[in-house]
Write a structure and sequence with these properties.
The protein folds into 2 domains: 131 residues, Aspartate Aminotransferase, domain 1 (Alpha-Beta Complex), CATH 3.90.1150; 237 residues, 3-Layer(aba) Sandwich (Aspartate Aminotransferase, domain 2). Helix content is 40%, strand content 13%. The strands form 3 sheets. Strands 2-8-7-6-5-3-4 form a 7-stranded mixed β-sheet, with helices on both faces. Strands 9-10-12 form a 3-stranded antiparallel β-sheet. The chain has a two-stranded parallel sheet with strand order 1-11. The two termini are 31 Å apart. Bound molecules: pyridoxal-5'-phosphate. The site of pyridoxal-5'-phosphate has 15 residues, from helix 3.
Length: 387
């Protein structure tokens, strides 16, 4: 059976060049980067060269980047690290209602520790309004955390504007850029952030490795204790093979980003047109104007997203109903609810995220399979009949 993978926001395959770059670091170049002998020094050199490459993708200085185990850890370190270190200055944090659980749950944890968090609403298009953000700022606000691109609906937030507001008020600004790094430009000076989280497995690198960009001068503390690795901010023997893989993935992303973004946006728009032309009572969640090139999130009235997903899976097509982390919960997506959709309409959503392997042929095949599936499910549902 033909298999089409359309869930690149959940994870991506490791690119062949990435795997090739990593392999020697499991076997002959297995050193501990803290060891003083030549085996260790070889690992240390790979670590620092990798740091330069990943920093290059962000327009950052290598010394401003530390490696972590992935997006979740980077988010935890950014939020808790800044909150704990700056709590004498204030205990108020601003974030949005559509963040990934790696940010939302960290904020909830901070709330149990005496911090106050404002969760900003978004427009029905899925965008944060800088004016609303500005009016939420208080004397004791120490941190603003707004994601760059949303993992479910792909909307891209106005970070440049928010960055200016944060800088004017002297408040640290963090972004969860797990979904945007490698797909759209993420120059830290252009978007005006002090901290940025990224994750390797979303950009054709291995799982279990990520990074946190920390602008020079940003005050934060480690959230785990141990040796002095990564400037003491992330103790633990470095995962050199993973770090080398992330660096190679970053290098590849830098080379191909512009052409791949254009190609994926073309496929995305083709798929959107085909579905909206051929399926009644269908819509797109989130604005099409400021959106990741490979992301499309459909809503279908009178259909369960999970039934659609399983039907498509039986045809070899892998899609998602929301974020990979929440899709097993069968609760309406917090992102779609934040757009103002009623719960029953959130249940009929389908997220398609395109990537390197996808072609125009895939888009046509999937559009047809979705149209067929929606029709079939509606024909057996009392509400959907005749729609
Ligand atoms: N933040 C966002 C926006 C994500 O989409 C994800 C993963 O889906 C994460 C954070 C967590 O990243 P990781 O899987 O590397 O922990």
């Amino acid at each position: 059976m033909k298999r089409i993978y359309l869930d690149h926001s959940a994870t991506t395959p490791v690119a062949p060049e990435v795997l090739e770059a990593m392999l020697p670091y499991f076997t002959e170049k297995f050193g501990n980067a803290s060891s003083l002998h030549s085996v260790g020094r070889e690992a240390k050199q790979a670590l620092e060269e990798s740091r330069e490459k990943v920093a290059g993708l962000l327009g950052a200085e290598p010394g401003e980047l530390i490696f972590t185990s992935g997006g979740t850890e980077s988010d935890n370190l950014a939020l808790k690290g800044v909150a704990y270190r700056n709590k004498k200055k204030g205990k108020h944090v601003i974030t949005t209602r559509i963040e990934h659980p790696a940010v939302l749950e960290t904020c909830r944890k901070l709330e149990t520790e005496g911090f106050e968090v404002t969760y900003l609403p978004v427009t029905s298009e899925g965008l944060v309004e800088p004016g609303i953000l500005e009016s939420a700022i208080r004397e004791d606000t120490i941190l603003i955390s707004v994601m760059h691109a949303n993992n479910e609906i792909g909307t891209i937030q106005p970070l440049e504007e928010i960055g200016k507001i944060a800088a004017e008020k002297d408040i640290y600004f963090h972004t969860d850029a797990v979904q945007s790094v490698g797909k759209i430009p993420t120059d830290v000076d252009a978007i005006g952030v002090d901290l940025l989280s990224l994750s390797s497995h979303k950009l054709y690198g291995p799982k279990g490795i990520g990074a946190l960009y920390i602008r020079k001068g940003t005050r934060l503390e480690s959230i785990i204790q141990g040796g002095g690795h990564e400037r003491g901010l992330r103790p633990g023997t470095e995962n050199i093979a993973g770090i080398v893989g992330l660096a190679k993935a970053a290098e590849l992303a830098r080379e191909t980003m512009a052409t791949e973004a254009e190609r994926l946006a073309g496929l995305r728009d083709r798929l959107a047109d085909l579905i909206l032309e051929n399926v009644k009572n269908a819509w797109i969640n989130g604005t099409m104007k400021k959106r990741l090139p490979g992301n499309i999130n459909f809503g279908f009235r009178y259909v369960e997203g999970e039934s659609l997903l399983l039907f498509l899976d039986s045809k070899g097509i892998a899609v998602s109903t929301g974020s990979a982390c929440s899709s097993k919960k069968l609760e309406p997506s917090h992102v779609l609810l934040s757009l103002g959709l009623p719960p029953e309409e959130c249940h009929g959503s389908l997220r398609i995220t395109l990537g390197r392997s996808n072609t125009e042929e895939d888009a046509d095949y999937v559009a047809q399979a979705i149209a067929e599936a929606v029709e079939r499910f509606r024909s057996i549902s009392a509400l959907g009949r005749g729609s």
